[in-house]
Design a protein that fits this description.
This protein has 18 helices and 23 strands. It is of the alpha+beta class and 580 residues long. Among the domains are: 9-59 and 136-231 and 347-411, 3-Layer(bba) Sandwich (FAD/NAD(P)-binding domain); 236-343, Succinate dehydrogenase/fumarate reductase flavoprotein, catalytic domain (Flavocytochrome C3, Chain A, domain 1). The strands form 7 sheets. Strands 1, 2, 5, 6, 7, 8 and 17 form a 7-stranded mixed β-sheet that branches. Strand 7 (171-178) and strand 8 form a beta hairpin. The longest helix is centred in the C-terminal third of the chain and has 26 residues, at 480-505. The protein is globular, with a radius of gyration of 23 Å.
């Protein structure tokens, strides 16, 4: 039975939305800096036990100032983002990364060391190596959660925050509901932090299903400036098995991909790194193999892994290894079957709230965003989320001390409740799962998300707008669980709209933004950020120049065929999406 209670207001100095590593490093740092602060972490599942941080692929791709080359790491980060990152944030990330790593150890996170005492850092995708998490993400996130509770951070689990409460361009609180009993919640706060991750539009992989862009959508609805949704870092995952992350380890330890003819093919697309190519090269390569009729299927081959590599996987991704064993893919500690792989759908990244160096929103005071909830960061993954959480906490804790107690407009809170609870008011209608499937069918095809064309994206956008205008208004929820699903569907529709509008705005190919109709990487006209904003219910999208003149690294001001398309042309491939 859903409770329709008149809400009591819960007061806090800082509300953190999201219980992953960024939410934990933020809350621990802020609490240690100022123990008097009341910090509440709100998580729609269970903080520290769900999501990508807990089910991470076994590694922490951090930078150690004592041993790693700063200039080389800086250059790789900037170049891997094709100069669309904030280079000042990249420098901050590298400068803070070592101390954050030591703090994680102090807070209970354990990393695997070799017999000589050095951290085990096998190769990864790209030019990176990463420290291996001892036991994977679950026990180490539990350690962070235990430490945070010990020092007085308050956790509110099974509560989905749906919207921000604002007053005169300042965030003053949030609203949401308990996903088990439907009890409405209003939290009043001086500071609100989005640590809500990204969206993968509910893929089958564990840890990804809760990533529905909730932070993106609530920030957009509140009028925050957003950016980076034109970019998609589409990964590759098991097509049939829900085994969780681990791809960095698989390819770093020597796993390789086979097409339907049994041929290894990644060396053709990225001769230097082959299977260890960044995943913005992997997925398009899979797509070209399909266009050339050598896929599907595509398989990941780990059958040649030696006992030492199997042991590393058991240490760092035990969840995945257990699933492989139960599925019969792993027998007697040896992989005995190929694992079918496929590109995932669009994963907008790096995108989110446009923030400054302290990770505060550029246009909504008191709203901070960390990890994958913010754009232009120049570094992604577990380490970037941890470091941005620490950096944001240092400035947010100071701001919380001098920000007056906020006032909440209860009429605004009531309107936000009405919008979030509207599916419950309908006796029948469209189920949320139907809306989610419709969104996936519109944007997941590789011809929309990966190998793009303006014509195809415009068609997909019209489909999303039809879902927005015709399905969302009649969406029905039976209970509080379905109400959570309905609000996730609402958020996914907004995220799909932001992705498609932003992708259409960029008329070139750059990084993971490959277009058949604009195949050049254009540093003359398109060294730009793509921004968007909610203006009176309509999505406004625009481009602004990257302030490259003030940055340390500058690309050549030239217009050239994108390196991926150059490889494809050099291989003599002539097929297009339309022909397939």
């Amino acid at each position: 039975m859903i409770s329709q209670n008149k809400p009591d207001i819960i007061d806090a100095d800082i509300v953190v939305i999201g219980g992953g590593i960024g939410g934990h490093t933020f809350s621990i740092t802020a609490k240690e800096k100022n123990p008097e602060l009341k910090i509440i972490v709100v998580e729609k599942a269970t903080a520290g036990k769900t999501g990508p941080s807990a089910l991470v692929g076994g590694r922490y791709q951090g930078f150690l100032i004592e041993t790693d080359d700063f200039d080389k790491s800086f250059q790789h980060a900037v170049e891997e983002d094709d100069y669309l990152c904030d280079q000042e944030k990249v420098e901050d990330y590298l400068n803070y990364s070592g101390n954050v790593f030591r703090s994680l150890e102090r807070w209970g996170v354990k990393f695997i060391k070799k017999p000589d005492g050095q951290y085990d850092r096998p190769l990864s995708r790209g030019y990176h190596s990463g420290m291996l998490l001892d036991g994977g993400g679950i026990p180490n996130m539990q350690a962070l959660n235990d430490y945070a509770r010990k020092i007085g951070v308050v956790f509110l689990d099974r509560v989905m925050i749906t919207d921000l409460i604002t007053r005169q361009n300042q965030v003053v609180g949030v609203v949401g509901f308990n996903v088990r009993d439907g009890q409405f919640k209003t939290l009043r706060s001086r500071i609100v932090v989005l640590a809500t991750g990204m969206t993968r539009f509910k893929t089958i992989q564990p840890g990804h299903r809760n990533d529905t862009g909730d932070g993106y959508a609530m920030a957009y609805r509140a009028g925050a400036e957003m950016g980076g949704f034109d970019s998609t870092h589409h990964n590759t995952y098991g097509a049939r098995w829900e085994v969780g992350p681990g791809n960095n380890l698989y390819v770093g330890l020597g796993g390789y991909f086979l097409n339907a003819l049994g041929e290894r093919f990644m060396h053709k697309y990225h001769p230097e790194l082959a299977e260890r190519a960044p995943f913005v090269w992997l997925s398009p390569s899979f797509c070209i193999e399909r266009m050339e009729r050598r896929a599907p299927p595509i398989y990941l081959d780990l059958r040649h892994f030696t006992p030492d590599k199997i042991e590393t996987l058991w240490q760092s991704v035990p969840y995945a290894m257990t699933r492989y064993e139960r599925a019969g893919i792993l027998k007697n500690n040896k992989f005995v079957e190929l694992i079918e792989y496929t590109p995932e759908g669009p994963r907008p990244m790096p995108c989110g709230v446009v923030t400054g160096r302290g990770y505060e929103s550029k246009n909504i005071s008191g709203l901070f965003a960390v990890g994958d909830a913010t754009s232009q960061k120049g570094a992604g993954g577990l380490a970037a989320a941890a470091v941005s959480g620490v950096i944001a906490a240092l400035s947010a804790a100071e701001k919380a001390k001098v920000t007056p107690a906020p006032e909440v407009d209860m009429e605004q809170a009531s309107e936000l409740k009405k919008a979030a609870f509207s599916p419950l008011e309908r006796q029948d209608g469209v189920e949320p799962s139907h809306v989610i499937l419709a969104v996936q069918e519109a944007i997941h095809p590789y011809s929309v998300a990966i190998i793009r064309h303006g014509r195809r994206m415009e068609k997909a956008l019209k489909e999303i707008e039809t879902i927005r205008d015709n399905l969302l208004p009649v969406m029905h929820a039976y209970d509080s669980h379905y109400l959570m699903l309905a609000n996730e569907a609402r958020n996914m529709v907004i995220c799909a709209e932001m992705f498609l509008n932003s992708a259409l705005e960029r008329k070139e190919s750059r990084l993971g933004r490959l277009r058949e109709d604009y195949r050049d990487m254009d540093n003359v006209n398109w060294l730009k950020y793509i921004f968007l904003k909610n203006e009176k219910g309509r999505m406004k999208t625009w481009a602004e120049d990257v302030p490259i003149d003030k940055y340390k690294l500058k690309p050549k001001r030239e217009k050239v065929l994108h390196p991926f398309w150059k490889i494809v042309d050099g291989l003599g491939y002539k097929n297009t999406v339309e022909e397939n």
